[in-house]
Amino acid sequence: MNEYSFEKLDVYNITRDYRRKIYELTYKLPKEEQYNLISQMRRAAVSLTNNIAG
Hints:
By secondary structure, the chain is an all-alpha fold. It has helices spanning about 10-25, 35-54. Helix 1 (about 10-25) packs antiparallel against helix 2 (about 35-54).
């Protein structure tokens, strides 16, 4: 029986790198965007990997 691991998928690893880049980008945005744009961008980036893992 084969064991399935989403962590071995190329698309999962690509989205992890993308998420890391989004987080780096959000640190450069103005602080007044912290609860609007930054929050939304980070949640969307996390959602990418979560949807693949799920």
